Fold each of these.
Amino acid sequence: MIVGRKVPSVTFRTRIRDEAVGGPNPYRWQDMTSADYFAGKRVILFSLPGAFTPTCSTYQLPDFEKLAGEFKAQGIDAIYCISVNDAFVMNAWGKSQNLENVKLIPDGSGEFTRKMGMLVAKDNLGFGMRSWRYAAIINDGAVEQWFEEEGYSDNCDSDPYGVSSPQNILEALKSEKLAA
Ligand code: BEZ
């Protein structure tokens, strides 16, 4: 993704709790657009190969959650985690992680990820099409900084993780502030 480029305009099918629905499972569909998430805000978006996978669940997502206050101090309004998983899976993952700060975005059909140029095959793991791991600082819908793991490829044997870690992005934000 080229710095300065606008993120794609897509509609995400989310599920939100609504007591008015009643019954034992009071959730309903809520369409959210790229504009809803990105317009008028400076945010971090990070994208990973799958909900509940080990690196994502043990390091990347919980570390973004823990460091949310530090990101806020650096002028970040929101932190979003996106994955090619449906809203039911993403909600279950969020619940299991007790998230308060990071918002999960379900890209179940992979449309956003494909239009970002980050969709890769993970058939070697029985996953189908998923996201290559990356993160970005997105300012009012435009990519301000891009953090992509090395080795973008289909059916990659390894799952590189470092460049898109919250620690690395925080470091970049802090050094940018010092240089300003
Ligand atoms: C992981 O996050 O550890 C992981 C991601 C994709 C496939 C397998 C593991």
Amino acid sequence: MDNNNACVVVGGHSAELKLRSSTIGPSVLDIGSLYEQTKMFTYDPGFTSTASCESSITFIDGDEGVLLHRGYPIEQLAEHGDFLEVCYLLLYGELPTAAQKKDFDYRVVHHTMVHEQMSRFFTGFRRDAHPMAVMCGCVGALSAFYHDSTDITDPHQRMVASLRMIAKMPTLAAMAYKYHIGQPFVYPKNDLDYASNFLRMCFAVPCEEYVVNPVLARAMDRIFILHADHEQNASTSTVRLAGSSGANPFACVAAGIACLWGPAHGGANEAALNMLTEIGTVDRIPEYIARAKDKNDPFRLMGFGHRVYKNYDPRAKIMQKTTHEVLGELGIKDDPLLDIAIELERIALTDDYFIEKKLYPNVDFYSGITLKALGFPTTMFTVLFALARTVGWIAQWNEMIEDPEQRIGRPRQLYTGEPQREYVPVSKR
Ligand code: CMC
């Protein structure tokens, strides 16, 4: 047997399986030929031990609390970079030179407007529609407008679609918000940076001059950086699976948005703030901690725990700092929700249940407080996550299309239903 291979013996069959090395992190056992050799499948619902693809975009070491994009630590990118620089890095694999950055910013900025007909879509929704429902529909609808960037076999069209999505998501997200609150849409202003432009589209009104606060714009930008990519999470895997059939990128990203909405994933930031509001006062925290530990109570501490991070989520640390910066800038000295969050975190981090299960605050624990202070209603929180994650989805989608091993994703199953049986006419049942 080849030294680089592993031998698995099952049910009287032995199979020689390839070992594939990673640059960092666990290697993988390539089980692609397992069925052929043993007539058996593997079983791993929730993919706890299964790599679904090869990727060179993002690396997470959950035990050490490390997150790298193309090798660069998230802390350094959040401290020194800006969101569009991170977008470039995720898409092209390297940090841009000054000239490349200027060119990239220009190319994104000149795709910020959406087709005017898109605004008609919004009026079809009820004003009280959840903005994530609106986003699922509107992003999917982009494929009806940009026919010149849906040929996935053409690298140029793929890049145009990628830039379009990065550029138009803030415009659509701001439109969803404005529609929700009954204000007129604000068009993008291309001499502003990405985050400032977004804040302006959300918070400017035609009757007043809007001056962007640079501290808040920087915080917004940092929130986008922190959510830009997170390797093969549920929504990214959804985008890849949808894309594996050859679906166009706008449709794939709409599928990602639908998946992100769930409270176990992107919806957790909204759920976390709702939970802090429900707790209401610091003295009620023990009651909620007890509920979170009770096996018979489905309640979970939202913003706590992560499938991969079994140490502090590095994004949560940066987010916590950003929260303080935003509250400081806005002169919010006593935010009761922040007091509850800090105390909840302190209690949970010293509680045996949370220590044993390695449950730490995740990025969503503090992002809700920051977004609320910036002026966003809770229903917009997951929309902002989707806006930022679009680059991750699209970079991963591009990587998948370019992968020579790429095939339609088609999991197998462990069938536990009835064996074959004869049809019985209704009169005899
Ligand atoms: N509160 C209380 N107990 C928890 C929590 C929590 N937030 N999270 C996990 N547990 C317990 C869970 O009950 C289980 O206990 P036991 O072993 O006794 O059955 C154990 O910890 C393992 O939980 P799991 O559900 O098997 O873990 P998972 O890896 O499948 O789920 C998770 C990860 C993020 C879905 C989960 O921790 C959770 O529901 N957290 C709250 C929602 C949340 O904050 N999600 C945002 C994740 S970060 C942003 C993103 O990725 O979108």
